[in-house]
Amino acid sequence: MDSQTMSSFVMMGLIFAIMYFLLIRPQQKKMKEHKAMVEALRRGDQVVTQGGLIGKVVKVKENNEIDVEIAEGVKVRVVQSTIVQVMSKTEPAEG
């Protein structure tokens, strides 16, 4: 290998390293935080969905679904991963 080929490989490696630290790693961290937030959802939490609906978690179901009350007596079934923000958390029951 000549020096030009070697420097080309080094440049490609540097570009990949920069892309990893600027794009891939922060996105993985964000996904990990979102997953932890969704898994910590419980009854009484006030949440915002991707569609912009604000409501209160009424029931956390199996198969990644939750029931959210968006108005008095109006409940919708929502996929947990579509929750983008928890506005207020309820304290866990002691006992």
UniProtKB/TrEMBL annotation:
Q: Which SMART domains match?
A: YajC
Superkingdom of the source? Bacteria
> Where would you find this protein in the cell?
Cell membrane
Q: Which Pfam families does the record associate with it? A: YajC
Which residues are listed as membrane-spanning?
Answer: 6-24
A single cellular component GO annotation? plasma membrane
According to the UniProt entry, the coiled-coil residues are: none
Tell me, in a sentence or two, what this protein's role is: The SecYEG-SecDF-YajC-YidC holo-translocon (HTL) protein secretase/insertase is a supercomplex required for protein secretion, insertion of proteins into membranes, and assembly of membrane protein complexes. While the SecYEG complex is essential for assembly of a number of proteins and complexes, the SecDF-YajC-YidC subcomplex facilitates these functions.
Classification via NCBIfam families: yajC (TIGR00739)
Q: Which PANTHER family match?
A: SEC TRANSLOCON ACCESSORY COMPLEX SUBUNIT YAJC
Protein name as it appears in the record:
Sec translocon accessory complex subunit YajC
Q: Which source organism does the UniProt entry give? A: Pelagimonas phthalicica
